[in-house]
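S.,

Sequence below, as promised.
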Amino acid sequence: MTPTFILLLSLSLLVLRWLGQWFLDRLNRNHVQTHAHQPPEAVRDIMDKATYRRSVDYTLAKSRFGQMEELWGLAMKILFLCSGFLPWSLSFWAGWVGSSVLATAGWLLVVSLVMGLPDLPLEWWSQFRLEERFGFNKSTLKVWVTDHLKMLALSTALGLPLIAGILKLTDWIGDQWWLWAWVLLMAFQAVMMILAPILILPLFNKFTPLPEGSLRNRLLKLGERTGFSAKTIQVADGSRRSAHSNAYFTGFGRFRKIVLYDTLIAQLTEVELEAVLAHEIGHYRRGHIPKMLIWAGVSSLVSFALLGWLARQSVFLEAFGFKGSAGTAPVLLLAGLLGGAVTFWLTPLGTRRSRRHEFEADAYARNAMGESASLIGSLRKLHEKNLSNLTPHPWFSGFYYSHPTLVEREAALRLDSGSTALVH
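The prediction came back faster than expected:
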């Protein structure tokens, strides 16, 4: 294969991905518009007409903005790949800073940040125009800027040593560097799973213990009877940035803690919050977390193996203006730019697995609660409060949705609802 062929193939894959996204999004938007004024019977009792109309408007507005984002992203990738900026920046950086492992890692980090700059205006518009229009934005410009500066500092403090370590492996080990780079990445992620709740999450949210009272007692009793003991239940100030809500647990063993967004507590009743937490515990009890980690580990191993192969193909680097001996760093950068054009088509594999896990967690919550009404009520309220799309096109939801649709979840929860034995 010639450099020209590889360049044209890469650009074709990027355009093909954009066309696939455009087709699915167009399909979904037409489906939503078809039901804009008369919702299907299955969802008529979930929202009142005014809220349903706002959910339609929100879905369509996000769709239009999303298509603009994708087109802008495609244009920027093509510009960076074809303009010669990337090889020029490496040569300039090597002449100015040097070509040591740490210096090259610095180039990779800086050029990645530079390529992210064109997206900032769109991020701002999404937060302070689109989300603001529908009442979801609670952030300020100061908080938004501060968050980005914190993420920049974290990217430098954590990303620079990790990248330097991966690049150093190529000097130490040679062609098999990719295998040990994968081991290094897995070890890094394991450490971050432990440290992130302690050191990183508090940089973005304030966490306070859930006050003594009936809700805390109810949730702790749920943990006891499901065999899920948590060190603490904390409330995150999610309302500082958004009206959207969430619940999750972090940590391992005796360091495990349950986190509820304050917006979630404000939106749901105590029994509905218990059902939501039972669903999250279901993920833990059904072993979804280790399964997810294994899936991610295998996927990243395959990705690193491909990176190792690409690093040995000098023609690949030459296709984008780099010298054939430019090293591993440009390969990592190019893979970040082009990888999504391939993995996009594998998205349904992950979403199908994720939806199966959601059904299992729902079933566990139903059994833990002894009824399904509480979880159904919480799901309905969350879809209403978040103006979720109740009528996605089946192809669109099948491709993108990591969670089943509300109609699908309700149908599954009502199926065999008489079976309420708690499963440990």
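Residues 419-424 have pLDDT under 50 and may be disordered.

Coffee later?
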